[in-house]
Amino acid sequence: MFFVARYIFRSIVGGPMPPTPEFDADEDLMIKDAVLREARARLLRDGDWRGAKQAIEAAGTDWALRGYRLGVFAGLAADDDTWFDAWMRAEPSDPSAALIWASVLGGRAGEARGAESAANTSAEQFASFHILSEKAAEASRRALDLADPRDPAPMIQLMGSCFSARAGRLNEYYAEARSRDPHNFAMHEVAVMLTCQKWYGSHERMFAVAHAAAEAAPPGHRTTLLPLFAHFEYAMREFAWDDRSKESQKAVRRYFARADVQRDCDGWIAKFRSAPPTSEQLSKVRQWMAVYYSLIGRKKEAKVVFDELGQYVSRFDEWGWFWGDMEYGYLKSFWWANGVGGV
Q1: How many CB atoms are located within 10 Å of the residue 45 CB?
Q2: What are the backbone angles phi and psi of residue 3, rounded to the nearest 5°?
Q3: Superkingdom of the source (predicted)?
């Protein structure tokens, strides 16, 4: 009742509210890439894999865009592989199809393990994870043999296989991927995850990787915001690991209230904002900014980012880490940024 009263008051005093975020909308509403949107619609309508192949090839040597399109089609293949089987039968040595298959297997490995901490993951889950990760690595090596030698995607897939106790080869894969596409966001994000304390590294190593990538990236590039992700990983591991209590949430907020943490985050956001974005795929990094501003209580900046995110959203894990549930965290912060309720 109190929320409804606040909402009505805000609408009268502050003007019309922006549309309420929708998390389960048709993906077409979230895809800004017109070529991808058309190819996806054609695939879903007719089961025609040729449109998917053409859309991927149309990205040329824009490796980030190519990887994004591959990822969307890999998601569709994971849901229904009828069209993908037809592609593999027709062109068994197609490099794009090989990469999609490696991505599908990597996704299955992650699903088999689950998202819980090691203490809450069964031996059976770990066994399935290792088996499927090895299959994904084999598929990635085959994709590497077939792919353009400039394409970082097979190396990023191999980096992903390091989650299954393959961290010893991470530096090798990461170096080769950087030589192919120095500022690739997906590549650096995987490296930050693998070098965090939760996996095979340490807080110090994780921050070093994130800062080096952000420093090298040009203004406007998504990679400049990876240090925010590193701060989230640190706060989650130190204050919210298997604990979503109010005390844990207070500890997270105290961490982000530190002057040194805010100087670091604000500096990278300023670098990102200092030039036009170099990609259209900005939902994840914009949500990082929204999480950060919500945690430190900067309502004006948070609203700007929520307005940029728009009505149709795929929420990310960080909302769940710090609010207990992804959808709840996003909506609570959205309402707060628009003058309704607290954060």
Answers
A1: 9
A2: -65, -45
A3: Bacteria
